[in-house]
Design a protein that fits this description.
Pfam families: Palm_thioest. GO terms for molecular function: thiolester hydrolase activity. The protein is α/β, with parallel strands linked by helices. It has one domain: Alpha/Beta hydrolase fold, catalytic domain (Rossmann fold, 3-Layer(aba) Sandwich), CATH 3.40.50.1820. The protein has 14 helices and 8 strands. The structure holds 2-acetamido-2-deoxy-beta-D-glucopyranose (3 copies).
Length: 290
């Protein structure tokens, strides 16, 4: 009897497939727990799925005190040392986490299937509201000295502060964003290839986001040179020059954008639950075959 059960079940077990794991990366001044609600929704939609929320160092403080070059390196180390992720995974980054996860894909060639960025900061941020999340003594450092090396090395926000009046300084002195955005004179084809290798790249923003300026940074649009006008698909170098492969991804039908309608949520994502369930959840409906 037992033999019969094994005989029929074993082939099923051996040939079964499991949902691709999901890795979550939180935003600034928060920690891994801030993604618990999202993790819970994914687990209840896809029973048995492996979901892990990553924290870099002591999440809350290190999220703004560690330069993003180091955060990306630590993120890659954590992921590579987790054997559950060896076969590949889907990756989600929220707010500041959006550029940590994209940096990790570009620099570390992680085996990511779908890369999902929620309320991203792809084209940086510039403006006081975002800084209000930081301790008061750090705010002036950013508004006055963002492109000085000691500040670049001390506050994560300096690494993606994109002042439209100082784009030349941004390009030469900002340590992180111009690099992963491939804005330097010498392009990094490796970064671009790693983006093009994705199955899907998903970007979202909220049309009432009160923290990220411009909020369209979530869709990879920043301020144009010397103004507070916002780039469009047609006048952004990212698209016209295909710096990291956005245009190629779009042409291949692998670029997805969604507009949410919710205030910025660094602690709980509950108010955005319907949006996430409807638009984002389908990107986790894929399996690894064992
Ligand atoms: C921005 O415009 C100014 C004035 O036209 C020009 O000198 C500068 O080179 C431009 N900067 C960039 C990064 O294109
Ligand atoms: C902008 O680009 C889109 C393609 O995404 C194209 O359909 C449209 O005609 C362009 N608009 C202008 C004003 O060039
Ligand atoms: C996942 O995809 C399968 C196959 O297309 C579909 O039957 C199933 O309903 C989807 N699951 C969810 C939770 O959407």
């Amino acid at each position: 009897m037992i033999f019969l059960v094994l005989f029929f079940l074993l082939p099923i077990v051996l040939s079964s497939s499991i949902y691709r794991p999901v890795v979550l990366m939180h935003g600034i001044t928060s920690n891994a727990d801030a993604m618990n609600d999202v993790a819970k929704w994914i687990r209840s939609t896809y029973p048995g799925i492996y979901v892990i929320s990553i924290e870099i160092g002591d999440g809350k403080e290190d999220s703004y005190l560690l330069p993003l070059d180091i955060q990306v390196e630590k993120f890659c180390q954590t992921v590579r040392s987790n054997e559950n992720l060896d076969q590949g995974f889907n990756l989600v980054g929220y707010s500041q986490g959006s550029i940590i996860v994209r940096g990790a894909v570009e620099r570390c060639s992680l085996p990511v299937f779908n890369l999902i960025t929620l309320s991203g900061i792809h084209q940086g941020t510039f403006g006081i509201p975002y800084l209000l999340q930081l301790p008061i003594e750090l705010r002036d450092l950013i508004t006055k000295y963002a492109y000085e090396t000691p500040v670049q090395n001390a506050v994560s926000v300096a690494n993606y502060w994109r002042d439209p009046e100082q784009l030349i300084k941004y390009d030469s002195n900002c340590h992180f964003l111009p690099d992963i955005n491939n804005e330097h004179e010498t392009r990094n084809e490796f970064y671009r290839q790693n983006m093009i290798n994705l199955n899907a790249f998903v970007m979202t923003y909220s049309d009432i986001d009160e923290i990220i300026m411009p909020r369209q940074s979530g869709l990879f649009m920043g301020y144009t040179n010397s103004s507070l006008e916002i780039e469009t698909y047609n006048n952004s170098r990212q698209f016209t020059e295909d710096l990291i492969g956005l245009r190629t991804l779009k042409e291949q039908g692998k670029l997805f954008t969604f507009t949410a309608h919710v205030r910025h949520q660094d602690v709980t994502h509950e108010p955005n639950k319907d949006f996430i369930m409807k638009n984002i959840m389908p990107f986790f409906n894929n399996t690894l075959s064992l």
